[in-house]
């Protein structure tokens, strides 16, 4: 079995929750796209990262069913694990920094796959939503405290690949931040926390706590 690490990304203040991420630190053991895709499907995490150059931060990201040019929680987790100033993804170069308990990346809203950002009237409505049928990628959100920038959100990938709900979705948080053009403190899933902030020239920072599970 190929060696891999499991991280939890966008954890709560107590280190709980967060979205699991598989990381194969030595991508050379599995260089082909088809075998990487098969391995990501076998692991079953919402995303798995293959590190092709740990010093330069070159990474390759897969869901159980597709290769992604960019994704939020894999980049935040990989930046923390590799402790590099940037990551090189097919979408572009992702800036990275560590700030106390938070790992941050800087990316562009054009990079993630399309998502439907669907606003609801209250956090309670978001909490009560059933998982929608496969189809579009839906990021359901509502203000918990608009003045403070606090958001309640849930992510439904809709791919039909066994991931009915994403515990924490950095790319969707990036898109929402770009749409609202303001810093956000997002509570997603069962208890994960995502921080964001718009940056000059259309960039967005996304930050969260990362824990090495094993």
UniProtKB/TrEMBL annotation:
Please state what the protein is called.
Answer: Phenazine biosynthesis protein PhzC/PhzF
Its domain of life? Bacteria
Q: What are this entry's molecular-function GO terms?
A: catalytic activity
Concerning Pfam families, the annotation shows:
PhzC-PhzF (PF02567)
Native source species: Streptomyces spinoverrucosus
Could you read off the lineage of the organism from its UniProt record? Bacteria, Bacillati, Actinomycetota, Actinomycetes, Kitasatosporales
Q: Which SUPFAM superfamilies match?
A: Diaminopimelate epimerase-like
